[in-house]
Amino acid sequence: MDNFLFAFILSLSYIICIFIVQYLGIGSKKKCTNSNNCCPDCKSNLSRIKRLSKDKLNYYLSLGMIDWRRYSCEKCGWQGLRWTKPHDLKRN
Ligand SMILES: [Zn+2]
b/e per residue, 5-21, with b = 16+ CB within 10 A? Predict the structure, then answer.
């Protein structure tokens, strides 16, 4: 029974962690003066590229609550995962 309780608390704190990531916007799109989704290095516009197979892992790890998408920068070649905050989606 103690093991069950431990697993329960562990998964509960895991879900809370995902909520904290969502709330703080960790890894979400960054806005700049010239773009709604800008590169963290050179501040230019990012463009959507095809997801890699390992990117699906991020999706499963966040229990499908965070919609990770892969972006790349045309200027400096930066590549990474970004997600859109739900309230940003409604505005677009
Ligand atoms: Zn860049």
Answer: eeeeeeeeeeeeeeeeb
